Description:
Elements: H1 3-59, E1 63-67, E2 74-82, E3 85-93, E4 100-108, E5 113-124, E6 127-131, H2 136-139, E7 145-150, E8 159-164, H3 176-182, E9 187-188, E10 193-194, E11 197-205, E12 208-209, E13 213-216, E14 221-228, E15 236-237, E16 242-243, E17 252-258, E18 263-268, E19 280-285
Parallel strand pairs: 9-13, 11-14, 13-19
Antiparallel strand pairs: 1-2, 1-8, 2-3, 3-6, 4-5, 4-7, 7-8, 10-11, 11-12, 14-17, 15-16, 18-19
Amino acid sequence: xxxxxxxxxxxxxxxxxxxxxxxxxxxxxxxxxxxxxxxxxxxxxxxxxxxxxxxxxxxxxxxxxxxxxxxxxxxxxxxxxxxxxxxxxxxxxxxxxxxxxxxxxxxxxxxxxxxxxxxxxxxxxxxxxxxxxxxxxxxxxxxxxxxxxxxxxxxxxxxxxxxxxxxxxxxxxxxxxxxxxxxxxxxxxxxxxxxxxxxxxxxxxxxxxxxxxxxxxxxxxxxxxxxxxxxxxxxxxxxxxxxxxxxxxxxxxxxxxxxxxxxxxxxxxxxxxxxxxxxxxxxxxx
Length: 286
């Protein structure tokens, strides 16, 4: 082959190589770029949903589960809205390690349970999370409801903890639009209410209440559900002659009263020097 022919052959080969590379770029570059972008978008959506869920969980008012059948198991249930669907998170103390404990939402009350309405994820090592494919209104529909936990799958007939799901949680509560109004763990802004009846679940411990501030309107009927997780306590509001019983660990009591004056009123624990130790809060009537 002549020197000229070899040069032509080399030039043709180089051009073919360049065309092949360009074709590969067209075949894989944009597709791979789109794939990476889709992955990034999916991850952004996951992060957004996770953030919204965590904010809603933090803002939700807990329902306090009290022990049954001398189980020693107590805990909290948070029911909140995430993207139009209800989510239920349980956290139990005193639960046995490694034991799967069924949990349900029933018709009726803890004193008289009716049929199961919603099955929840079993409590395991004190924790459970259930994403229910229903809106909040399907749970808080005006009928009496109760949430209970069973001893184990083998002993499902033994109840170890229960709470009445009193009040009504509004649609959209604890979503991003309302998180800012409820993000302070020490402030309650009436997330559990029906018309002029307002219910607040408060946990007492040495030496504080879980709610440091409660806001209501003049004329409201207020119910305080007090549960005790530590020590021996009560809840007292002198101006409205409201007082629970003094209760020990794992016990609960309630008091209902009508607020007929506006102003700021201090509630407190009357046991020993607990009030002086800072176990108090404010009821603000507007």
